[in-house]
Write a structure and sequence with these properties.
mainly alpha
Length: 434
């Protein structure tokens, strides 16, 4: 079997699995898997850019995805006028003060010669600046969060179309990646992994605790949509007539139409990112990145700035994760900071890259669809399997109850099993790097 035939067959297999879901379960479930598969494929490509192209071990994927979700809120939600009037200006001045303190400390480090005086000056600037920052910032935050805390209690956003949040999410994640990269890309791979994981947890802690920014654990719901609402479609006589012609009731037809609309938007975003990633992979820049990945010492000897190139690809991969995070929040229609878990937004994305094929963009896309399909379907299949296994057992059996209760853990077992099998029989992934 040729390489092209094999790769097409793998994608056809995933498409068949999604279609079977539609026929056997429901088309709503199939389209949900499709939509989240498209989003997961973009996340997987972001990690593949970092690991497959440059060998950078980023364990902070969750943080960059969360920043994309935050971008959806900051761009699309309307501003809370009362909160801005109560303390918005003071919050902005406080943030500017904090940034000014960091800039001042950096200038002192750069302008003064290394000495005890420089150390004392930097410490004095940071400590004094911290108290100044809190003196300005805290009263503004309290004033904002006291404005209807049950309904709003935050500054809101810009009230712009939510599609604009996708590139903004990429920019937010890229900015965070630049800061992290400047501090951590000179470290060894294991230290880089620890640094990215720690900073991702910091980002998540900010989202959970800074109510003025994203309502914290109270969540932000009701985000605007880039597609129509179901009730509008159900009240449209033309849509109702078309649905009746297809043999569908208006409620089902409107739900499927919305999911198909999201799938079209996500597919466009995936194709654009995939084309750009392929162009980068096959360009002199891509060949240079792979050369750096394979032998940093030889690349440095050829005059390549390894740290700078690592920073570039780290920013690009994180931007992809940020875009995917904004897309996912758009699909959900709400931001739930507690939903960002390392198991889902770091470990699972890495499984997608490894199973699909590290260093191959099409492999990353395949892994995104395949692993997400397994992640969704394993639990109901596990319940069915345990029901079949325990059917002959007596009612009230402790073993039967234990097995049925353990079906929820089939997800983790299956992910580990898939990973082990792929690493054993196809260690370079289903679609390996050429």
């Amino acid at each position: 079997m040729s390489e092209i035939t094999r790769n097409v067959s793998l994608f056809a297999l995933v498409a068949t699995l999604i279609l079977l879901t539609g026929f056997v379960q429901s088309w709503s479930t199939a389209l949900l898997i499709l939509n989240m598969g498209l989003v997961s494929a973009i996340m997987s490509m972001g990690v593949n850019l970092q690991w497959g192209f440059a060998g950078l071990f980023n364990v902070g994927v969750m943080g960059f995805v969360a920043l994309g979700g935050l971008a959806a809120v900051l761009v699309s939600m309307p501003p809370t006028v009362d909160a801005w009037a109560a303390g918005g200006a003071r919050v902005m001045v406080g943030l500017a003060t904090g940034a000014g303190v960091i800039v001042a400390a950096t200038l002192v480090l750069r302008r003064m010669a290394p000495s005890r005086l420089r150390t004392i000056t930097v410490v004095a600037v940071l400590v004094g600046g911290f108290f100044l920052y809190r003196w300005v910032f805290d009263p503004g935050v309290e004033a904002v969060e006291d404005v209807n805390p049950a309904g709003t209690g935050y500054l809101g956003g810009l009230g712009l179309p939510i599609l604009l949040s996708w590139p903004v999410g990429g920019l937010l994640a890229a900015g965070a990646a630049w800061i992290i990269g400047k501090a951590a890309l000179g470290l060894r791979s294991d230290y880089l992994a620890i640094a990215t994981l720690g900073i991702a947890e910091i980002i998540l802690a900010v989202l959970k605790n800074e109510d003025w920014l994203s309502r914290g654990v109270k969540n932000v719901s009701g985000l605007p949509r880039p597609v129509p609402y179901e009730r509008d479609l159900q009240n449209d006589p033309g849509f109702v007539e078309t649905a009746a012609g297809l043999g569908l009731d208006p409620v089902t037809a409107s739900s499927l139409y919305i999911k198909l609309s999201y799938a079209a938007l996500f597919a466009v975003a995936l194709v654009i990112i995939l084309v750009l990633a392929q162009l980068a992979l096959n360009s002199p820049w891509g060949r240079m990145m792979r050369a750096i990945r394979d032998n940093e010492t030889a690349s440095e000897a050829m005059g390549k700035d390894v740290t700078r190139r690592h920073l570039q690809v780290f920013i690009l991969g994180s931007a992809c994760c940020g875009i995917a995070g904004a897309m996912m929040t758009t699909l959900d229609g709400q931001l739930i900071p507690t939903a960002y878990q390392p198991l889902r937004f770091t470990f699972l994305i890495w499984v997608m890259v490894i199973v699909g094929g590290s260093g191959n963009n099409f492999g990353a896309v395949l892994g995104g669809f395949l692993i997400w399909f397994c992640w969704v379907q394993v639990e109901p299949v596990g319940h069915w399997l345990m029901s079949v296994v325990t059917a002959p057992m007596a009612e009230g059996s402790a073993l039967k109850a234990h097995l049925l209760d353990s079906a929820a853990h089939m997800r983790l077992l299956t992910m580990g099993l898939i990973l082990i099998l792929v690493l054993r029989f196809s260690p370079r992934g289903l679609i390996p790097e050429k």
